[in-house]
Amino acid sequence: MGNSSKGRSKQSFWGTGEPFVWATAGALSLTLLTTAVLIVVVMVNGLGVFWPSDAALIIQNDGGRVLGEITREEAIPGTNERRIQVKVANRDLYGLDFRWIPLEDIENIEYPEDVVVLERQEYGNFNGFLQKLEQENSEPGEGRLWYQFLRAWRQVKKRQREHGVYEERIAALNREARSNEDRLLKWTHRNVPETDRRVISLLERKEALRKQFDEVSTEQAQALRTLREERAVFADASGRTKEIPLIDIVRPLRPNAMSIPAKVGTYVAKVWELLSDEPRESNTEGGLFPAIFGTILLIFTMSLFSFPLGVLAAVYLREYAKEGPLVQLVHIAVNNLAGIPSIVYGIFGLGFFVYGVGGTIDQLFFPERLPTPTFGTGGIFWASLTLALLTVPVVIVSTEEALSAIPKSIREGSYALGATRFQTLVRTILPMASPGIMTGLILAMARAAGEVAPLMITGVVKMAPALPIDGVFPFVHLDRKFMHLGFHIYDIGFQSPNVEAAKPMVFVTTFLLVLIVLSMSSLAIYLRGRMRRRYAMGAL
Amino acid sequence: MEESAANNTATVEQTLPQTDVIISVRNLSLFYGQTQALFEISFDISPKRVMGLIGPSGCGKSTFLRCLNRMNDLVDSVRVGGSIVLEDIEINDPALDVVELRRKVGMVFQKSNPFPKSIAENVVYGLRIAGVRDKAVLEERTETSLRRAGLWDEVKDRLSESALGLSGGQQQRLCIARAIAVDPQVVLMDEPASALDPRSTAHIEDLIFELREEYTIVIVTHNMQQASRVSDDTAFLYEGVLIETGPTEQIFTRPREKRTEDYITGRFG
Fold it and tell me: Would residue B55 count as lying in a domain?
C-alpha cells in the first residue's frame, strides 16, 4: 500500500498518520482472521465426526458394489475427471478403511434403509446388511429381525456390564498381590531368612492370592466365552458374510433409516462417550476421558507450584531486594528463562526431578524394589513440576509489573498510618496487584496447557492403565503416568497405524484441548474481572 | 515578649499543665546522597497550634515535614543529622520504632490516597494494623473520626461502599479521618488542598481550624492566603535554610528578614 499516495501531497498523506492506522488495523485483522480460520477448521472437522451420516450403496459399471459413507470428492490429479472417497470400513475384510472410486465408473448410488453400520470394539466400523441371528443360549424374540437383533444385543451388553464384577475382583486381587509383593521384597532386602514366620505367612498369602486370581480369571473367561456365542451374521455389499459376536458391537445403527432427532440423539450419546469413556482401538476411537482428566489435573497441579513460587519470588524482587547489579542480573535471567525451548525444560525435568529427586527417593525409601523404579520414573507430579518451572518466569514477570504499577502514594499512605512493610504488602499492595497477578496465572496456564514436548519425557503415555486420582487409598497417585490431550493429538495423528481413520479424532482432540484452555482462561478472566471491580483504582 | 505571649495562650487555653513545646528541632540537616537539602534547621513547634511551613518550590518544606515521621527512611540515599525531639522521644534515633512513631505522628498527603477499600475500612486501617479487633471500638472510631473530619453526614449511609467513589474533596477529608482515627498527637499535612477546587479547599481549611483544638498540626502550603488563614505560627524556608519563624501575624505583617517580606509580597517564588 506504500506508494499509492500520488493524488495528495506526500506531506499531508504521511503526516496524518492514516497509513499507520491502516497498518495497525490490518495487522489486527490478519491475526484475528488466522485464529478464526484455525478454530473454524478445527470445529468443522471435529464437530462433524460424530454425526451418523447416511451410508451409500454405490453400484459400479462393472457390477461391483461398494457400501460406505462418502467422505469427499476431488479431481483426480492430472486429469479432468473427479473421484469420490468412500469410507468402506470392514477393515478385517478389506484391509483398508477407505476407497477411491472415479465418478465415471459409477452407475448408480442408492441409500437402502436396511444398511447397518456397526461400531465395533475392534477393527473399526462394519458396513453391511443383517442376515440372521445365531443364538445358542437364548430364544429368538418376536418381531422383525433388526429388532430381534437389537433386543439380543442389549441383553448381551447388560450381561457384559454385570460381568464387571470380575474385573473389579481381579483389580482388587492385583492390588493386594502388589502390596504383598512389596512387603515380601522389603523382608528379602533386609535379609530376613525364608524360614522367618513373617516371610512364610507372606508367601502363603501370595500363593492363596494366585489361586484366587486363577479361579476368578477362569470364571471370567468362561462367562465371556458364553457371551461370545451370541452372534449375528452380516453380509457386506458384495455378499461376503461375517459372523460378529454381539459383545463386540459397541453401537449398531441404521443411519439411512434414522430420523433427524434419532441422529441428534446418537450424536449426543457419542459426544458423551467421548467425554466420559476410555479410548479403544489404539486411541483412534472411544472416549478421551483419561486424557481430559490428565490435562486438567496437570495444569492444576502445575499452578499449585508455579503460582506461589512465582508470586513470592516477584514480591522479593520488587519489594525487598535492593536495586543493584545483582537484581538487574536476576531480572535479565528471569526474562530469558521464558525464552528457553520447552524441550530443554523437559530434559532438565527428566534429569533433575525424575532421575535426581525421584531416584534419590527410591534409594532412600524403596531400595527393595530397585531396579524397578517407584518415583524414579516419569509421572504426573514430575511433569507438573517441570511445567511449573517453565511457567514461573511468566508469573514472576506479570506479578512484578502488577506490583510496580501500584502508585507510591498508596504505599506511603499505609506506612504513614504505622503499617509495617509486611502489613502494607498483605493488606493493600497484594490485593491491588491481584488482577495483574491473575493475568500472569492465565498466561502461565495457557502456556502449560499447550506444552507437549517436555511431557513426553517426564511421564506422559499413550495409554495409562489408571487415573492419577481414583478410589484406591491414598486416592491421589501423582507418581502415576498420565494421558494428555496434546500428546494424544501427536500420538493418534502421527503414530497411529491407521492415520486416515484417526484423522477425525485428531480434530476432535484439538477442539477439546482448545476448549479446555479457553474455558480455564475464561474462568480466570472472570475472576480477574471481579478482583478488578473490587480493587481497581478509581479516579485519583 | 514572644515567649510570654506563647505562655499566656497556653495558660488561657489549657487547664492541664503542659509544656509549650511539643516538637523541638535542633541543627537538622539532611542529605540526598551528596546533595544537602536541609541546613542546620532549629526551631520549636507548640502543641495544639497550627504551624505553617512556607517557601518556594524545592526549598525543602516537604522534606522537612517527612523528617517528622521518618518517611524519608523509604528513600534509600537519605542521611539525616541533628535532632528532633517529640516530647521525650528522639525521632532521629536509629533504634526508634518508626511504626510507633507514625502512630503518634499522622500524615495527610498532597494527593488524596484512599485505599481501594470501603469507606469504613479506610478509616479503621490504622487501628486494624495496630491489632484492634473489637467491632464496637472500630465502629465507634469510624463514626467519631468521620464526624471530626466533617464527612459523617455525607457518607454515613454508604460506609461499606468503595472509598474511590467519593469526590476529590471527600477523599481528602477521608484521608484526614483516617489519619486521626489512630489518635495521633501531631498531624502532618503536605499541601492538603492543592489538588482541590476552592469549595473543597475552604472545607479543608475549616476542618484544620477545628482540628487544632485536639491536635498539633504542621502544614506545608504553597498558598500565602491559606497560610495566613489557617496557621497560628509560620516558618519560612528558603533553599533548605530556615529564614524566619514566628507567629503568623508577625511574619505576615512585620517580617524581620528582607527575603521573607519579598516572598510574602510575591516578589519571587
Answer: yes
Residue A476 parent element (H or E):
none
Decide if B131 touches A, using CB distance below 8 A.
no
Chain B CB within 8 Å of residue A534 CB: yes
pLDDT for A3 beyond 80: no
Cα(B64)–Cα(B75) distance, integer angstroms: 14
A536 pLDDT tier (thresholds 50, 70, 90): low
The Cα–Cα gap between B244 and B230 comes to: 18
Q: Has residue A286 been placed in a domain?
A: no
Instruction: Please check whether residue A487 lies inside any domain of the structure.
Output: yes
Q: What is the pTM of this model?
A: 0.79
Measure the CA angle with vertex B229, ends B228 and B230; round to 5°: 100
Say if the Cβ atoms of A535 and B113 lie within 8 Å: no
Name which of A407, A415, A536 is nearest B102 (Cβ-Cβ): A415
Distance between start and end Cα atoms, chain A: 43
pLDDT tens digits, B162-207 = 888 898 889 999 999 999 998 899 999 998 888 888 888 888 898 8
Give the three-state DSSP class for B114. coil
Is cis: bond before B184, omega within 30 of 0? no
Give the position of cell 455525607: B154
In a domain, A474, yes or no: yes
Q: Note whether A402 and A430 are within 8 A (CB).
A: no
Whether residue A427 and residue B99 make contact (CB cut-off 8 A), yes or no, is: no
**Cβ-based neighbours of A402, under 8 Å, separated by 6 or more:** A433, A434, A435, A436, A437, A439, A440
Whether B14 has a pLDDT exceeding 50, the answer reads no
Across A512-526, B36-50, B112-126, least confident range: A512-526
Please answer whether residues B20 and B2 qualify as being in contact, where contact means their C-beta atoms are separated by less than 8 angstroms: no
Contacts of B116 in chain A (CB under 8 A): 431-432, 534-538
In A274-333, the residues whose Cβ lies within 8 Å of chain B are 322-323
pLDDT band at A143 (very low <50, low <70, confident <90, very high): low
Q: What is the tally of structural domains in chain A? A: 1
Chain B interface includes A533 (CB < 8 A): no
Task: Please tell me if residue A419 touches chain B, with a CB cutoff of 8 Å.
Answer: yes
> Is residue A540 predicted with pLDDT exceeding 70?
no
Q: Is B221 left (phi over 0), alpha (psi -120 to 50) or beta?
A: beta
Domain that holds residue A418: 295-535
* CA A112-A116-A122 angle, 5° bins: 150
Total domains in chain B come to: 1
The verdict on a CB contact (< 8 Å) between B162 and A428 is no
Distance, CA of B233 to CA of B1 (rounded, Å): 15
- CATH number of B152's domain: 3.40.50.300
B residues 157..176 contacting A (CB < 8 A): 162, 164-165, 175
Q: Can you read off the three cell numbers belonging to residue A314?
A: 516477584
Quick check: A51 and A267 in contact, CB under 8 A? yes
Query: Of B15, B6, B98, B12, nearest to B47 (Cα)?
Result: B6
Residue A478 cell numbers, joined: 501423582
CB contact under 8 A, A537 and B102: no
Residue B15 lies in a domain: yes
Q: What are the CA-CA distances from residue B90 to residues B39, B64, B78, B195 (Å)?
A: 19, 16, 18, 33
- On chain A, the residues whose CB falls within 8 A of the CB of B112 are 540
Q: What is the number of other CB atoms lying within 10 angstroms of the CB of residue B57?
A: 8
Alpha carbons B2 and A247: distance in angstroms, whole number: 110
